[in-house]
Write a structure and sequence with these properties.
105 residues, mainly alpha
Length: 105
């Protein structure tokens, strides 16, 4: 996934988490209205939403990097085995030189 996808997912996760936390705070009667940074509860809700969003997008990025590295590793081994198979075929196809017998003394 590209960085644009991660940004979209991060925004969506942030919005959902902030909405859920704010709805919980409103249902408890701690705040009223919309989430803002003027109350401690608003700062807490938006901060938690930011941290959750950051952790989700960071995990996505690390997984993409791991998959890319794994693909490169597999490709390198496939190329190595292809070279070795080609080398073995060349060895089999090469004419064999007769071994000269040396006289024993």
């Amino acid at each position: 996934m590209g960085w644009i996808t991660r940004r979209i997912v991060g925004f969506a996760v942030s919005a959902v988490v902030a909405s859920l936390l704010w709805a919980f705070a409103v249902s408890r009667g701690w705040v009223s209205g919309e989430p803002n940074l003027t109350t401690a509860c608003g700062v807490l809700a938006i901060g938690i939403a930011f941290l959750v969003s950051l952790s989700v997008t960071t995990r996505m990025k690390r997984r993409d990097e791991y998959e890319r590295a794994h693909d490169q590793y597999v490709r390198a081994w496939q190329e190595y085995y292809a070279r070795m198979a080609s080398y073995q075929q060349q060895q089999r196809a090469a004419p064999q030189r007769p071994v000269e017998k040396t006289q024993e003394r």
